[in-house]
Records
---
Amino acid sequence: MEIKTNDKESLTAVQKLPKYDSEVLQYVSRLLRVWVQDEQQKTIRPCYHFLVRLYPKGQVIRYEICRNPDRKPTASQVFDFLCRTLLDPPNGEDAHRPGIISFTDQDLETQLANMLNTLGIETQVLQPAEGLEDLVKAVSESLIKRDLATRTDASERPGMLSKPGVDLSMIQAFFTAAYRLREKGPWSEFSENQVYGIRIDDIFRFVVVLGSSDNVFGVAVCSSLSRFRQKYCQAMGSQYSGSSSSNISCAFCGAEQLLVTYRCTQCKVAYYCNEKCQRKDWSVHKQECHNNALWNQKLERPFLQRKEMTLIYCSETAVPFDDLDLQAKYSWPLYPCEENFPVAFVVVANDGETSLDRPNKEELQWLTKLCEVLVESCGKTPSSLNEKALMEQNKWIFVETLSNHK
Ligand SMILES: [Zn+2]
Ligand SMILES: [Zn+2]
């Protein structure tokens, strides 16, 4: 039975409760960090109500699943939860009214202030209580332990904000660009066995647009063309005969060399795409130019160690919770279809071992611009591979068809 805002009997009962003037409670609703099946067998993240006593003693009073667990509760559902808890407090406490109920959400406070005031309870907006996120995690864990919920491998991976230097505005720009790409849907225009090249912010990368052959939509980005050839052979079940590591890469941006190669005239060891890359690398390279020991250590360069980057559109269960929460908090656009959530990952190769990481600041900004350029490039014929095109920024260059490569 729901206690409605016009349920006079229950409201009078709440009004008659003794009042603990100094007591401050806080109401919060949160999506748990687990997946459950709803009544229609749809996989959802359940939303829970939490009522916490902030003062005089920090304490969780009650938490329970929301009536419509796949969305934020309405103000009247929150009101019902509050009144039920006040009338029938758990843990054998005496029923009473608090002096103040605080909310973390301004809209909710505005909607409920009048009703609670008539019950003699003040309202305010406060930051979520300390320890709330731990409580959400603990409740999630307990559901998993009791086999009532599940979690995917991807769910607890770090979110995009976990990388130093990455901020909200960058993530928002990425979401917006990825949304426009999903909406534009150039999946049939680009074939998965065609490699394109593009230079953005003086970083040259090879790109394959995924989506022409199956249901995986996105883009794969790599500094090495032979890596793409190798992957294509693997996917086709054939043996890759070419070499994978002997190609010369640019010391600045890491791109495998295609046509022209500039070399440092002093040490003759460092190769570059062009003069621009060489100039940009000089602040790092000057330390190693006359010092072979340093050269062998491979000084830190923004893109060198990180071999591949992908943007894939996933269903929510394949997305880290932290990213889902950010998107929900800021209402960034998502294309209305099943697999619509843009997820960016970087494969990091370190001494033969590979691991997954989230894009750093430079990578995220690069990927965002790539989506924008790809949207702009739709319907236009890419430039053919030539020295001038290689040097130009934001120019989509056709490099090769993988199936033709022998
Ligand atoms: Zn370069
Ligand atoms: Zn040099």
---
Amino acid sequence: MGNDISTEQSDPSIPPRSLASRDIDGVAQFILEGRAKRIVVLTGAGLSTSAGIPDFRSPETGLYANLARLDLPSPEAVFDISYFRSKPEPFYVLAKELYPGHFFPTVAHSFISLLNEKDLLLQLFTQNIDCLERKAGVPSNKLVEAHGSFATQRCIDCKTQFADDLMKESVIAGSVPHCTVPQCNGLVKPDIVFFGEALPSVFHERIHMLAMADLVIILGTSLAVAPFSTLPQLASEGVPRVMFNRDRVGDIGSRLDDVVLLGDCDEGVRRLADALGWRDELEAAWLEVGGKVKETEVERLRNARPTMSEDELLEAEINKITAEVESTLKVTDDHVAWVNKALDGSLSTRSTRNPGTLTNEQDLDDPIRNADPVAEQRLVVSRSDKVSSVTSHATLDSSLPQNRPDDFNGSSSKT
Ligand SMILES: [Zn+2]
């Protein structure tokens, strides 16, 4: 089988085998005739973009640009397990943006839930980590979160599960959570599959369901990430494969019973619901899981983001990272006092301590006094009880791009 998708499209003059027609009406008829009772749904990021979830790869969201300015080696690094191990703060900046609770299911999520209510859903395989499928009402026995999700979390060292409420507190506070097992203190990470990690076993346990499907519906995925991208090919010949997506992707369109519906997922499923006579049920199901709230929230985000200047967006990101770095270092009062003492000695305008008690000899031995000016500015960040947050930000901004959390970590040690 060749991989050149563009040359593999089926001949439009040859009629489909299973469907009456290669369009929405043909798919609706197939379902209404009771020929689709084991539907497998495959979803990706496009399912959730209308929920307002920022795509971190998209330059338009601002998120990517800001993370990039914090010197990630690549946008993907934020989901790289070895990078996370050395520097978890950027991930937690993203986690705060993506954490479940801010977002509500889309109409397309509710369509999948409706399929389940009608006992037509065999399985949903999603690449999304936002838990919106659960929120829409898809039960866990019908759901494979192929790339994991924010639903649970654990220590990356001893693998002990971490409490949901503690996780929520950390994410909201913008702090990096650490394992509560005595002597461990490992980093805690949501059970999201990072690059370099294996897919959850449930993916492999249920992958055979593709071959059992009598209809495959693909929603909002570019089918770019293996092995998920290979799933549509596991559907048996003659089983209709229907894709709702902004672009034609994968080998969809190469089989006689493939239907490609280009455009927005929500719009597409609403058209299908119309053709099925399910539209009222769909809208009711969606409203029940917060559809109206979602609409309002999306509007709010859409209005808020463009009004923030680039500097404000950057400052917001820096602010979050700064808070996380402080927490990671677990700066104690003693440490702050020690830092202040050292700084007071070097900055004559800020003599809140007794600079006179520092002898020249002590100065030479003092790592703070001997640090370069930029390092001194970084340390200002940890003096949250001494310096207002506004001052901290001003200090940070003036020293960008050198002032990075990794440098900060690298030049300081835990007390
Ligand atoms: Zn641990």
---
Amino acid sequence: MALSQAAFKAEQLLGHDTNSITAQDVTNPANDAAWAASDSSMKALAWMGKNKVQVVEVPQPKLLEDRDVILKVTGSTVCGSDRHLLHGTVVELQKGDILGHEFCGVVDEMGKGVKGLKKGDRVVASFQIACGDCYYCKNKLSSQCERTNSNTIENAMYGGRTAGMFGYSHFTGGFAGGQAEYVRVPCGDTNLLRLPDDVPDEKGLYLSDVLATSWNAVVDTGVNEGDVVAIWGAGPIGVMALDFAFLQGAKRVIIIDGVSWRLDFVKERYPRAETLDFTKLGKGESVTRKLKEMVDGRGPDVAIECAAGEYAKGWAHYFEMLLGVETDTSELVNEMITSVRNFGRCGITGVYVGYVSSPASPFRLRIPLSITDTSTSQTNHFNIGSLMERGIRLIGNGQAPVHLYWEKLLAMIQEGKIEPLKMVTHRVDLADIDKVYALFDAQDDGMQKVFVQTRFSAPPCEGSPSLQRL
Ligand SMILES: NC(=O)c1ccc[n+]([C@@H]2O[C@H](COP(=O)([O-])OP(=O)(O)OC[C@H]3O[C@@H](n4cnc5c(N)ncnc54)[C@H](O)[C@@H]3O)[C@@H](O)[C@H]2O)c1
Ligand SMILES: [Zn+2]
Ligand SMILES: [Zn+2]
């Protein structure tokens, strides 16, 4: 049995907590007639097993709770986080689960408890599902809502749990995602933001995640006027973080990756940025040494991780992960710690799951029996000495609290301070989204960020790439 299923079985054995105000494990309307609108059909992208996704025909979702909204999806995308789901790194996905946590659309139906919206409103959803009035929601820390995810394993593993999330496995509640023609949005009055007429879907969509996440990475790690910032990962998150670091007054931003076209993409769009390709380092050179060289012998003030813990670089970590004795590599975090100046700041925004991810793992079968055993999740060779002795501040940026930022970011789009289309390289159709997963995961030439249209989408706005069938 694959790890994903084993962990889900364990969750079933243990039983969910009772904290959630919304139904859990509602990942596909085809799984229960009570969740499906009668005589209806739609296209959706489903996870079918490790490294396999497929466009399927399933019934449309229907209203289940008073605060539900049914959205006609007009735009979605594929995220670096979807790569982790594809690889099976995030556990508790089940075959047939509908993916997609970034989407926008038009309100089609509403439960009687929904206030502030009307049918036909054009809206964007946050990737997290927040209740709107628990302790965290009151502080707009929506990604940590206490009432939308009742997963017991996550709580035991982490000592607390995140909010529920769309299309992000049963580990975060089990909600069908928006890589589909229709999606059910629980607590729709809280988790949807109206898009004004001057913000087309192709710009507004990215408020659901990328913009808020990159903004959070920059402000939460504390980029100040005059700072030198180094960013690991030149994917959409890293590049928007670079954009925002400059906006926050950074003097220099250096972006590190091993995919050369991504670094060329950055140079072309952000001539002020500096790039570092770690695959081009000579013998005896290292990212840390190079960064010290580039920044006064001391290193950058701030480091931000926008890559992920599953991407091991050296052979030692690669094999440890393969054997299941490590779950998330410490290489990138160690590089950040040793690279920044003394008392520098390091923020982690790339995903670290902390779970056995290899089917070969000797610990795998112990999960159902001993969920709090920390030997089931580990990051080896962490350089705690450097962290302590040199006073490095290591910050987990968390799943980004979208609600804290999205109104401000929307205004910044309207004022022209942010141009989300700068990262969008492809416009594709939902019917081809399974192929996008493969291309995006292979980091195929030039695919930085996609806009996925459906049959309900408006024609491309000015500046949007034109449709490309795959
Ligand atoms: N915290 C949050 O709220 C949140 C939200 C969205 C995405 N994320 C995470 O942010 C990360 C980045 O997302 P993305 O959409 O840009 O993903 P992506 O996969 O497109 O980009 C990641 C980039 O990191 C690079 N990389 C891999 N190993 C590296 C290394 N050792 N050093 C430097 N670069 C390396 C890859 O080549 C790639 O270009 C992902 O882990 C994603 O899951 C977090
Ligand atoms: Zn995302
Ligand atoms: Zn809440």
---
Amino acid sequence: MGICPFHGSCLEGLAAGPAIGARAGCKGEDIPADHPVWEPVAHVLGQLCHTLVLTGVPRRIVMGGGVMVGNDHLFPRVRDAMVQSLAGYIALPEIAEPAFIVPPALGGNAGPLGAIVLGEQALAERMGTAASAGAFTTP
Ligand SMILES: [Zn+2]
């Protein structure tokens, strides 16, 4: 079922764009929101969030990448899958809120811009100056 060359049905093997496309038989951007292929994707991503909640107790989970960006319908599905999987095991009512699992505010640019900010901070540290807020802060 999964396409990971190392593990078969690991998270990436099940929920990466090529895996979803292979199961649906078409490119990811052509898969409608009501296609049944999204249900197992939401399930495995919900399992990931379940693990993140129990191991790191995050205040928010930001999910980006090619699958999540452009598929806003996945956010409530992933959140529902996570809440259902946790089944009340942890008493954090905020995990059921829409703002708990969100897309990156910078969309597809979050990764490259984050790397630039980290580089800016490392340079400022090396230069002995405090890192500036930079031009890449979000409103
Ligand atoms: Zn793998």
